[in-house]
Amino acid sequence: MAWISIAVLILIAFVYLLPQLLSSNKKKKLPPGPRGLPIIGHFHLLGKNPHQDLYRIAKKHGPIMHMRLGYVPAIVVSSPDAAELFLKTYDHVFCSRPHHESSKYVGYEQKNITFGKYGPYWRNIRKHCTLELLSNLKINQFQAMRRTEVELLVSSLIGASKIGETVDVSTKIASLSADITCLMVFGKKYEDTDLDGKGFKAVVKEAVQVAAIPNLGDYFPYLGVLDLQGLTGKMKALAKVFDGFLEKIIEDHVQYKEDYKQTKDFVDTMMAIMESGDASFEFDRSHVKAVLLDIFITGMDTSAAAVEWVLSELIKHPEVMKKLQKELDAVIGLDRMVEESDLDNLEYLNMVIKETFRLHPVAPLLLPHKSMEDCVVDGYHLPKASRIIVNTWAIGRDPNVWAEAEKFQPERFLGSDIDLRGRNYQLIPFGSGRRGCPGLQLGMVVVRLLVAQLVHCFDWELPNGMLPSDLDMAEYFGLVTTRAENLMAIPTYRLHK
C-alpha cells in the first residue's frame, strides 16, 4: 500500500514537472545513455552496488554517459580523460554539491565541508580546516599521540597472538581510527556510552548508511517533506543525538578553555574563530558543529576502510605480504616498531596502497558534483543542475589504462610517477580539483603507519583452516564502501622484542 501511495505522489510530481523536462534539453545533444523508464528514469538499473552497475552500463554507452535519476539529470564519468574534463578543465562549473537531504538535517543545512555548496563560506572554512588541522605542521604535532594509540593496538594484538585468538580486525581498526580522530578533533577519546545507548560507533555507522540511501527528496522535488521512506524521521533522530553530543563537547571546551594545552585540538580552533568575530564570513555555533561532525565522521570512516581493504588484499595474496615484510625488515629490522619517519623509505608499501586504492577506492563514486550552469563538454550539452557522478571504481578497472586490470599487482607502479594527489586521473581515490579531499595528507599518514605496523609486527592467517584464496572480498556500498563482512584473522607476533 505504501508503494502505491509513493507511485501516485511521484506521478503527480512528474506531471507537474513534465514541461520542464521536455523543454529544457530539446534539440540539444546530450551524452549517450541507456533507455530510461517514465518517472523513475534509470533507478531500476542500479542495484546494491551501483558503482559496479554503472561500470557495466558505461562499457556500452561510453565514458561520458547521460542518465536520469528521477527528475535529476545525471552525468556518469568513467575514464581518466573524462574525469580530467570535469575535475580540472571545467572544474569551475562542476565544483558545487547538489541538495542532500541527509546533510540538510545532520549537516546543519549543508554547512559542512563535504556537502557544502560552493561559495565564499565553503572556500573560507575549507581553508581554515586545511591550515588549522590538516596542514603538515598540525599533522606532525599529533605524531606522539598516534604512536601511543598504535602501540595500544599492537599490545592488544600481542595478547591475542599468545593464545591464538581470532581477532575481529575490522572492529580493531575502526576503534583505533575513531580514537585517533577523536583526540585530534575533540581533544579526548570517547566511549560508546558517551554518544547514545546504541553505542558510539553504531550511531556513526547508522548515519553514514542513512546518508547513502537514495532519498526521494533528493531526486523528486517537493516529495522530501512527505518522508515517504521514513528517512527524514531517522535523520532528525540522529541529528538530535549528534547535536547533544557536540553541545556537550563545546561546553566542556568553553568551561575549561583557560586550561593550558600543549596542543590545541580542532574544537579550540573553531571556537576561537567564532568568538573572535574576525571571520570574514558567517560562522556561528551551528557552523562549528557542522564542521566538527563532518571532520570527525569522514576522518574516522575513510582511513579505517582503507586499512581494512589493504590488509584484506595482503592476506589474500601471501606472496605480496611476504615481499612487503621483507622490505619492512630491511628498512626497520625486527628489533623495533615502525616510526612515521620510516614511511617515506617504504617504496613497496606505497605501491601496495596505490594498488589497493585502484581496486577498492573507499568512495567508489566520488561524492556527486553539481553543474552550476549549462555547459558543453566534449561536444555534449550538460544542463544546469546536472549531477556529476565520477566512478573511480570504473576508472581503476579501465582496460585502456591498466593491464590485467582485475589482478592485484602492486608491481605495476614500479617506476611509475602516478600518485594519489589528484594530479593523475588514472588514480583519484581522493578526488581532484576544488572538491578534492582536504584530509588526504593526514589520511595517508594514518593508513601507511597502521598498515606498516600491522604487517611488520604480525603474521596473519585466516581462521578455521581457510585458504587465502577463499577470503570473500564482497563490498558493502555506502558513502564509504567497506567489506561486506568483517575481516577475521589470527595474528602471530614476529618481532624479537
UniProtKB/TrEMBL annotation:
It is found in: Membrane. Coiled coil: none annotated. PROSITE patterns: CYTOCHROME_P450 (PS00086). Pfam families: p450. Residues 1-23 form the signal peptide. InterPro entries: Cyt_P450, Cyt_P450_CS, Cyt_P450_E_grp-I, Cyt_P450_sf. GO terms for molecular function: heme binding; iron ion binding; monooxygenase activity; oxidoreductase activity, acting on paired donors, with incorporation or reduction of molecular oxygen. Its main location: membrane. Its cofactor is heme. Keywords: Heme, Iron, Membrane, Metal-binding, Monooxygenase, Oxidoreductase, Signal. One of its GO terms (cellular component) is membrane. Heme binds at C437. It is a single-pass membrane protein. Belongs to the cytochrome P450 family. This is Cytochrome P450 CYP736A12-like.
